[in-house]
Amino acid sequence: MSLTILNPGAQFECTFGRGCEGVCCRNGRPPIDREEIEAIDRRRQEIESMMRPEAAEAVRQDGYLSRRRAMGERMARVVRGWCVFYNQGCVLHRLGAQEGNPFRYKPFACAVFPLSRDQRGRWYVRQRGFKGEKWDLFCLDPAASPAPALESLKPEVELALKTVE
Q1: Is 19 helix (H, G, I), strand (E, B) or coil?
Q2: What is the DSSP secondary-structure string of 64-103?
Q3: What is the pTM of this model?
Q4: How big is the chain by its Cα radius of gyration, in Å?
Q5: Which H or E run includes 54?
Q6: Confidence band (pLDDT; 50, 70, 90) for 147?
Q7: Could you give phi then psi for residue 108, rounded to 5 degrees?
Q8: Is residue 35 within a helix (H) or strand (E), and if so which, with residue range?
Q9: By the 8 A CB rule, do 84 and 62 touch?
C-alpha cells in the first residue's frame, strides 16, 4: 500500500543542523493525544532533565500541556518562544533516537512534518503556495531544495501510512 499525496511533485529537505536550528519548533504547539501523553509521562523525569532549564522549570510548575486545543487535543506549551520540548533540537526525538525509534515520543504532527492532512483527510506536503500555506518557513519554499519530498520524507511517509492501513 502507498500513501496518496495530493502534491507528489513537492520538494523538501530538512536541513536541521545544516543551516536550520529548528525553526519549526519556534512557537511550536503540536497537538498531543492521549497515547502520546502517556508515553511522555512514562519518561517525564528523563525528558525534563533534557529540557532547557527555563522550560523544565515551567513544566515542573504547570506541566507541558497548554490549555489550548488543536484537532480536539491538548497542545504543548511554549516557553520563551519555543516548544517546551525544544533544546537544540527536539528532546523527544533525541530520546527516541537513543532507543532506536526517533518517533517514539514525538507528537504525531511533529513526527510527520511537513506532511499534513487537509479538511477532507487527504495527505499533502506543506509547501509555500499550496493550499494557502500560512507558515512562512524557508524549508516550505519549493525553491529551497531540489530534493523530491517523497524521497526525503520516506520515514515520515511510512509513519503516516500506518494511520491509513
Answers
A1: coil
A2: SEEEEEETTEEEE-EETTEETTBSSSBHHHHHHHHTT-TT
A3: 0.91
A4: 16
A5: helix 53-62
A6: very high
A7: -55, -45
A8: helix 34-42
A9: no
